[in-house]
Description:
- This protein is mostly helical.
- It has one domain (2-88).
- The protein is built from five helices and two strands.
- The chain has helices at residues 6-9, 22-27, 33-56, 68-77, 83-88; strands at 2-3, 17-18.
- Strands 1-2 form a two-stranded antiparallel sheet.
- It starts with a strand and ends with a helix.
Amino acid sequence: MTSINPVIQSSVAAPVTVQTDPLKYAFFFLVPLDSLLSMWIATVGLCFIVPQILSYFGYYSGIFTGGIWDKFGMIYFGDPLWIDTISHG
């Protein structure tokens, strides 16, 4: 994974990255399109839009100064979303 432009990283709460692993893209050829669309909508909603809104309400203090791994940890493993726990359930 490589991070996107630093200007975008400092203004967006989500860990915005570009995948550099070819197996990540090969996976998309194995999954039906309706599943991919559902996965894409859930990822955009839970990992990009909701954390941005919650950061404006005071959650995730310091998320704009952190790197991609700090943002990943705050969103996926911390309050109030616990996305990692939900995705395993």
